[in-house]
Structure formats: structure tokens, C-alpha cells
Hints:
By secondary structure, the chain is an all-alpha fold.
Amino acid sequence: MKNEAVREAIVAAATKEFTENGYVNTTINQIARSAGTSPSNVYVYFASKVEIAIAVYEPWYRDRIHKLGIKVARSRSPERRVEILIDGLFRDIANQGYTVILVQALATAGPSDQYRPDLLKWTEKQIARMLRVIDPESGWTDAQADALAHMLVLVFDGLAVRKNLNQPIEDSEAGLILLAHMLIRKG
Length: 187
């Protein structure tokens, strides 16, 4: 039987180890030792190190995306909604340490890591919903909003990779401004 306290200890230990050593330099042995359990017991709770990284990242990330959706919806103008969406996704969330951990995890994952794209699919749905809220009269079809959400996630991933490589987001500033203008012109 799985014990929730053990699972939480593993996630807490992984958070500490990933933060101190980075994803790539953290081993299951380190996580297990820090959690006070055995490496084999870690695998009782998680199929792979990638799954552990997602468990560390997901609550933080879902909270940020949820708060971003509220801010987008509450804003008064389409221009401001786009600005909030771009700032939230690319200057705030993609520019954080937890995002770097996830990017490292996904970049080094292979088929044996049993990656499940649940968080990715959820993210794309949330972004598509925000796009439809930007200007309800813009005429975004569901297919267009879904496709654009997918593209925005790809941009997000690229910016997070740049952050991982210590490349400042300012290097991408002109592209983000252009992207905001493109989204506003649709409306």
C-alpha cells in the first residue's frame, strides 16, 4: 500500500535536490536518501525521474496558469488581455526556476520514462480558453484557438530552454511584442 506521507517526502526531497543540483545532476539515489527511503521505494510511487519532476512542478504551474486565466478574463480591453497573457506566460512563468527543472526533465526524457502529456494537454486547453476570452467577438474558431495555443506552448518551451541556458528573455522581447500585435490584429 502506498503511503501519502512517503510520496510527499519524495516530492519534497526532489524539490530540494532539483533546486540545489538541477534536474540533470540529481539522481534517484539522492532523492531517496533525502526522503529517508530506498531508491526502489521511490519507484513504487513514481515510474521515472521525469514523473517526479512533473509532480514537483505541476501544482505550482497549474496555480500560475489558473491565476493568469483570471487576470486575462478580468481585464477590460483586448489589448490589455493580450499583454497580460504574453507577460504571464513568457515573462513570468517561462522565466522561473521550476520551469527550468521541467525543461531539463523533458529534454532528457526517453520512451522508457513513460512521459504522459496530461499537463501539456491541460495547458493548451487553458491557453485556448484564454485566447477566446481575449476578444469574444474576434471570431476565433475552436480549431484556430487550439492551434494557436499549441504554438504558444512551443514558444513557451523555447523561452524556457533559453532560460535554462542563461539567455535573458530580453533577447526575445521584439518577438514577444510582435506576437502580441499579431494576436490583437485577429480581434
